[in-house]
Amino acid sequence: MGQIPNKKSVMIIAGEASGDIHGSRLVMAMHKKNSGLFFYGIGGRALRDAGMKILVDAEELSVVGITEVFSKLRGILKGISIAKRSLKRMHPDLLILIDFPDFNLHVAATAKKLKIPVLYYISPQVWAWRPGRVNKIGKLVDHMAVILPFEQQFYRKQNIPVTFVGHPLLDNKHATDNICKDVTTGESVIGLLPGSRDGEIARHLPVMLKGAGLISKRVGKVKFIVSIAPSVERKHIEDIVKKHKTTIDFDIVADSVDKVFRQCKLVVAASGTVTLEAAISGTPMLIIYKVSPISYWLGKIMIRVNNIGLVNLIAGREIVPELVQSKASPENIADTAINMLNDASGLERLKNELLGVRDSLGGPGASERVAEIALGML
């Protein structure tokens, strides 16, 4: 693959489902401002649909947890090799990295040697764990485009060029509407959001379903909705549900997660971007998360923050319950959910606190703001 004549080229690396979506919006925003750009790199369906030439599908690389990396190590190393080789052959005018730090910082080192400018969109969580990476970022990255309000100050203290662009989730056309239903009245509907990767779903959905069964027995008439992330095959969800032979009243919904929020009084969500989507819609939630025992042990040693949920990190305190690892049991999920449902004023208060988190994320237009930075770097 040689240099594209008469076109500036931009290489993008987005190794995860959320990065793929945010990257696709960035490509569209850049295309609107300059239609003569050629995009290629690593991503998934959304970036492909936005017109980017895919060298490696992100699905081959995406993992969660420290020990889980080993299951895809060969694919990850191959992906790094392809990305570095492409930088040398194509020599793009700009490299845009989206999250996915362990992979992306390897590639950034090659770009630096080749004097290719690097824009990093969506910061690694260096403020939470492995803070030594900030020194590497300072040496390898020309500009950080950050999406959480406290990150701008963090990088400024390190003398790294940075812009707070707002959160790209606010670019969703429903994001600025209060789409959550009245949480104090009406039918009790609980959403189950097990994650965006097969491994996450395998760990989270069984305990969620067991917890739902306990809730159903104790509360009576409760409806459950299992939400399927765009990156997940419906059959994977259905197979897990069949194994558990659940008799609870539930639907499996593959449409936009906004539709799930619109119906639910409460969601049980795997920690990740979807918890911020719930906050933006004002939907009360409880957060769970499970990884392998070794990953959890190593994480406990390295993580420097008290909470894992993005909502709680942005709020600066725990406004949403978190059930992590052994605490993420069916019994604890049921107890916490029932206590929340039984406290109507507490649900309403939480809803308003979540909308306060939304207000701190800046307004819509993150993709356009990053596009301006990127075009300036070209």
Architecture overview:
This protein is α/β, with parallel strands linked by helices and 378 residues long. The chain has 2 domains: 8-172 and 363-377, Glycogen Phosphorylase B (Rossmann fold), CATH 3.40.50.2000; 189-359, 3-Layer(aba) Sandwich (Rossmann fold), CATH 3.40.50. Helices cover 46% and strands 16% of the residues. The chain has 15 helices and 13 strands. The protein has helices spanning 17-33, 45-49, 73-90, 101-113, 133-140, 149-157, 198-219, 234-244, 257-263, 273-280, 293-302, 310-315, 330-341, 344-359, 366-377; strands at 8-14, 37-43, 53-57, 94-98, 118-121, 143-146, 162-164, 189-193, 223-227, 250-253, 266-270, 285-289, 322-324. The protein has a 7-stranded parallel beta sheet, with helices on both faces. Strands 10-9-8-11-12-13 form a 6-stranded parallel beta sheet, sandwiched between helices. Strand 6, helix 6 and strand 7 form a beta-alpha-beta unit. The mean pLDDT is 88.
User: N-to-C SSE series?
Assistant: EHEHEHEHEHEHEEHEHEHEHEHHEHHH
Number of helices: 15
**Adjacency order of strands in the biggest sheet:** 3-2-1-4-5-6-7
Which architecture of the largest domain per CATH? 3-Layer(aba) Sandwich
State the major sheet.
7 strands, parallel
